[in-house]
Amino acid sequence: MGLEDLRERLNFVRSLPLETTSISDIQKLIGEVILGHSRTLYYLDLEMLMRARKNRGKKTFRNIKSLGCPNWKSIDPKNWVYCRCNDKGEKMFYAAGETDTSIIETKPKKGEHITLTMFKSKNETSRASVQVIGGTKLRLNDQRFGKIIKEDVNNYNNLDKELKAKNELVNNFLEEQFMLDVPKSESWKYKISIAITKILLTGEGIHGLVFPSIAMKHKGVNLILKPEFTDNHFQIAGRSVVEIKEVTTQYIDVKHVFSPLNKKNKAPEIIKWRLPYPEENEEYRIEI
Description:
Elements (H helix, E strand, L loop, with lengths): L2 H12 L8 H13 L6 E5 L1 E7 L38 E4 L2 H6 L8 E9 L4 E7 L2 H7 L1 H15 L3 H18 L12 H10 L7 E5 L8 E5 L1 H7 E14 L3 E10 L12 E2 L8 E5 L1
């Protein structure tokens, strides 16, 4: 596909009436485009992942399964929505590299309670093979990605002029779709990024995607991982509940309000909570 044909194809996909277009049709339109351009598979040694979930009011989560991937079967299908990387009813493990990013990604409001869960590798680290979107932003804003992406940038600069231009078109398209800030009522606007995810995660040897956090102004890192990978390689190592005390455009104030009750339960899947001890009763600020 020539450069102008590629540009025309991507513009056509942008113009699709997404509310009525199927994800599979979008995959057919962009599969050749995405798989046909130069991409590097990165390997990350992951030690810890963070997940955050909004509580329903002041209620705490009572089952350990509530802290991982959503159980769509327990949710009325009329309330299912598209997410950035998964179709309605499809499981995908969303996580962040840091606690602050995981909190801010929930778009918290003052007074809300948020449950934080730390997933730790069952080994010292777990190696994940990931596709990266928005690599330039990650390289500039996150030191961990500076080294692994530098080599890819050097390879990219060595491409011939037309191939380099094609790669730039495709990479900009992918980044554009993953940087959309979509309201829940218009979740169908995620159909293109869902189609991209399905294409990029094709194959057993690919475990997930990494892209910059919009909510953290690209200073944080989001990870999307196949559930079977996290089930096999990670386990819950810590959890807590925080309350959002203040929200501004520059910062968010957070207070620790519940800790897990570390007692052996006859039913290990049941979570019991306690008030934090004085030394745990911290309040801190997240700069955005």
